[in-house]
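Limitations
The structure tokens in this dataset are predictions for the assembled complex, not deposited experimental models. Users should treat interface geometry with appropriate caution, especially where small molecules or nucleic acid strands are included. An illustrative entry is reproduced here so readers can see what is and is not provided.
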Amino acid sequence: MDVNNTKLSLRFSATGLVVEGNSPAQRLISFIDTILRGVGQVMLQNNSYAGFIFLIGIFYNSALFGLAVLIGTAASTATAILLAVDRTQIRQGLFGFNGALVAIALLYFLEPNLLTWGYVIVACSFSTVFMAALLNLFNIWKLPTLTAPFILTTLCFVLACARFGRLHSTNLLPIAGLPQAATVEGIVTTSTVLEGLFNGIAQVFFQGNVITGVIFAIGLLVSSRLAFLTALVGSLTGVVLAWGMGAAEHAIRSGAFGFNCVLTAIAICSVFFILDTASAIYGLLAVITTAVAFAAISAALQPIGMPAMTAPFVIVVWLFVLASPVFPRLRRA
Amino acid sequence: MDVNNTKLSLRFSATGLVVEGNSPAQRLISFIDTILRGVGQVMLQNNSYAGFIFLIGIFYNSALFGLAVLIGTAASTATAILLAVDRTQIRQGLFGFNGALVAIALLYFLEPNLLTWGYVIVACSFSTVFMAALLNLFNIWKLPTLTAPFILTTLCFVLACARFGRLHSTNLLPIAGLPQAATVEGIVTTSTVLEGLFNGIAQVFFQGNVITGVIFAIGLLVSSRLAFLTALVGSLTGVVLAWGMGAAEHAIRSGAFGFNCVLTAIAICSVFFILDTASAIYGLLAVITTAVAFAAISAALQPIGMPAMTAPFVIVVWLFVLASPVFPRLRRA
Amino acid sequence: MDVNNTKLSLRFSATGLVVEGNSPAQRLISFIDTILRGVGQVMLQNNSYAGFIFLIGIFYNSALFGLAVLIGTAASTATAILLAVDRTQIRQGLFGFNGALVAIALLYFLEPNLLTWGYVIVACSFSTVFMAALLNLFNIWKLPTLTAPFILTTLCFVLACARFGRLHSTNLLPIAGLPQAATVEGIVTTSTVLEGLFNGIAQVFFQGNVITGVIFAIGLLVSSRLAFLTALVGSLTGVVLAWGMGAAEHAIRSGAFGFNCVLTAIAICSVFFILDTASAIYGLLAVITTAVAFAAISAALQPIGMPAMTAPFVIVVWLFVLASPVFPRLRRA
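Predicted assembly:
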């Protein structure tokens, strides 16, 4: 290693480390920065400082999930490197965020043991293939993949529990059943709204912890003031809408109706469109639809006992981005 | 308003009103004509006379559904106007028909109250975004969107009942259950066939009323003799096939097996292909497959307690239109 | 007929008969060769000798299924000829293999009677339209259709049982139910592995017969040594993975975890990519994912009581082929 006798040639940019050169030490630092960007991309931030703060938030809640995020992001990124994916895309963390979420989801739903960890690594490698497939498929429409590879990989690897006797569920999966009309349950108070607001941000990474939500919000603020603001407004909109429509109090408090709205708000109002009156109203319609779609998709997946994850966000943002060329009022970022 | 002292400059064309100029009165008349075309497009007719007759048919059966169609078509069309969609497409009613059906479906499945009406307007606005998204997505294949935005918007907004305690179902949704092998129920008589024939046309707008079906048929006749003829043949084919395969008598009588066949027949034999021997046989295969697909999709949606709506028509016509470039025997209209 | 007084002008090539000229006899022989290639294409072999040997394997197990394959392949191919599909594609058997599988599947799940046979012919004709639709849809990505038309046609025509009282199930369909976490059932022995290995190959055509599996393997060997080898390795990988993950012994023995892996292995390592270290590892990841996807898709289809068929193979190979342009390490065949 020539770490000690050559200049490392790295500097801090606005979004993370810039590493020049190709020595083992430089490649390692570059890899670590890529991992952090991958974690940041879970909230659509190509920013390793944000990724680092998100990691702190996760470790604050659970060392197991923190470890899972690190290993998952590393496994999916390493698969992309081995298959010689274009370096620019890798460096933006685009082959990390799905792996981060796949790993955390599998360890949320499956008992951690050696078999599970091996299973996680296979799933994360597969998520990289899935990502590449969607990049090619969507290239025609310049449509972002968002977290679709994560959702479908997780669905596949968790559903397999129903056939694989050596995978043990943590019993955090929804119980398979037929959807029924809901009744209003519990009373929404100020604490429901406040906890729901930050849990909504925390749940993007499957973390049901208000402090973690606050740390995530700080991470967003470091990356982009607009992302921070839209995330809070998105989460609040989800909470208020769910309240108004009569969703269960415990679900509102847990952030279940917020995390998809957080992501939709960030995507529409701070990533894909330039914020103005038109896109603000467009974003509001998107966020409201996301909350409704969360209710619908959870119900639709009930017979197979699977959670909606970030599918509402992905589907709604796809539609609102695809639709935009037809709407000249909107300005694409 | 200069209605009284200027020439309105409008004339009646073969398909509706032609309005020139941009005064408030002219814009209002143009908007009304657009709404009527939107209602006409539910049966693939860009024709405001047909749309007007369809409206009469709906009001004959139910003032609530008549109002829903008007408000739904207006809401989705207004969203398109606000987002500055190309005027030609709006004027053809292309941003109206999904809203018409979304509104009628939501009021068919949900108790009408203020919350429901607000919910309907959000859903109709969303259906316009969905429509724009599919127009962009399908542009590569010149594939029509058909009523896909209606189906998926309705599925989303109705399924959400399972999480939103303040939405109340009218109990007209199928009861969620696991599909089971059918047995032959009831005896099909001439009245089953006759009622099924016209109910099949009426059910395109969720109307279970023979007279409404007859009025709709007259509306089609005003727009296109071929559309009228193919609609009747399509509905009859659905009824006869369902009878031959042993479907339940009450389902055949209600038009359940007809309405998708009506739409497929109109689409294949009077809209997308020039009618000749090849396209007539092609259309027959499409209509038969539509009836089978209706049975299959109703069964597939049973665990989540949702109806098939016009999904069989949409999927079958997509396939038959997509396939056509491979079949030189067929002439595209 | 000028069969007796002209030269037939046919010769045996490496993949089947080459027929020149257009006399009735020549067209008949050409049609028979096309049927055999259609049967061969079920295992991705454009080879009429392989198709002939597969037919022997099927007739060895069941004359009914042998007849079904012949009639299904003929019906779907004839539909393509009547609709004037490009002759080159027809001659490769591309409009035969879905019909072969649709016919065998419908006769596996439905009691054979006159109505069923008519139903089979309609379904096989429809599978040709489906095939043409996917050829057009996928042209942009140069993505193969694989057996998707078979799977979706069969799902549609079998699910319709739940509404059509005159179709009688053979009770070989999975019982509709809600998926539950599995436990390890039965003890895997050498005989489980050996039977599973060959049943896995036999199950590609719904045949649960070890000797049929051996005959199919011989058919593959005649067409391509690489296809033979990858099929065996694929089947074995499926068996071993399912064993390691704790799948039920009877399912492993029956070849349930093998047949999709067989097809994925043939597709990735002998059809779509040039075999080298990178594609071998890529193929292994694909085969492992296929086995997991089989478990997941079977569970997902449990509420509607339908089998996964070859959907895991189709979805996984689509993803791995779509992803490949992003991975310069891989060389497309």
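Some entries come with short summary sentences. For this one: The first strand of chain B starts at residue 10 and ends at 12.
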